[in-house]
Amino acid sequence: MRLTSVDNLGHQLVRLEFVTQSELAACMAQLRGNGSTPEDLLRLLERKQHVTSYQVGKILRGEIDFLVQGRYTLMYRNGAGSFARVFRAKARDTGEMVGIKLLRQRYVQDPGSVAEFHREAQLGKTMKHPNIVPIYDVGRNGDHHYFSMEFIEGGNLRELMRIRKKLSVADATRSTLDMASGLEYALGRGFTHRDLKMTNVLLSSKGVAKLVDFGLAGGDLHLHHEPGESSARALEYATLEKSTGVPPNDPRSDLFFLGAIYYELLTGVPAFGRARERSDRAQVSRYRDVRPITAIDSTLPGAVVDIVNKMLQYNPKARYQTPTALISDLRSAQRELGDSSSPDVPSQPSNKQRKRRRDSEMRTVMCIEDRSKQQNDLRSYFSKHGFRVLMLNDLQRGLNRLSTAPPDCMVIMAESVGSGALEGFQEAARLRNGSPMVTVLVLPENQADQKAEIDITPTEQVLVQPVTLRELRTCIKTGLDAASSNGKSGPERN
Q: Which of 11, 150, 416, 461 is most buried when burial is the number of CB atoms within 10 A of its CB?
């Protein structure tokens, strides 16, 4: 859609619910009399956090209608594959953040691809399990085909491994158990995954592993598309199954590739090595001659080594035959590791085990911030530095979570929150009730005098703008170190 004037753009932005009439009026009043252009209005709206930089770029190219898919407004592009693109989006009726998967335009003219996209999305919509990313809506907007799904703050396993290199045995086992539980549920409904890889496992802000793209990579769907990561994995599945004489969709194939994920989580080394050419993935020896995991790390517990070895057996009859059998052994291994997250572990871990586990886990930072650009900056920076980031735009919602699912750290951006920031900070300190949580209040420069009213402790800190993200991270790390030292005891006041 061509932008002919500022007034025309403003009308379209209100019509499509990018801004309210009052928000537009405030910006228009600021622009009046300056010979303003549509781009001037968009840049002002971006500075005021009403639109994102991605949206501005699309609108300037005349693609404003593309940003509206059903009841969702696209905000950022999160990723892209050979078959579809993934966006972060916002539901206009509820304000909920979701993920949107959009079929690439090159496949829109292929009725088979379109039908398969919708069929598999509808099937995925029926699966409701805590270890599977739920699909909400499946729809079409003109020649755009999409479905919406839960937006996971924590990113995928590949992103996590770039930061942490490898996981502790407890964390790797817990994540593998999560994935196996998702596979067990899906198999009970007649589904196999057929595209198990690091990027198809997302981690929630609480560290729960969730499988994504069930069915959307399997069967013949990707085999006739150009080479890409999903078609490469389809080739790996096909090579393994053909060479071992089992039919496509054998559930034991998923368990084999889940074993490869477990192997890499434990060691930081891919089970199959990196494929330089597509033809490398069709080599049977790649799957038959996996390097023993003990050759990489001889200190791994025997129970864990046995599980990995059984999952990666080339002979399908020697592998786990069902996810249920694998789950049983993973839970037994958890008991040996003293991991109380196993649902049938009767005893509590020792203080030493608890501290070791806490030191190894990703820390969760909950940020109270309602401005889109600042949200994006905080999320990107802290995710890059190994934190799970939970972003909320409402202070009261954040306070409500403290009694049920407290994070390791709560950051309150006072400029965003407004006049209730100081009271919220004090309420958070009260609600933590001695738990080892860090609370940081970031005050705008014009409220610096409020800092004198606050009792500062190692775990209750106040910063005054201007503050760099690095300074904020240093403050958080100092508080987390103090919280770990104090354990469950309350902070000592200055």
A: 461
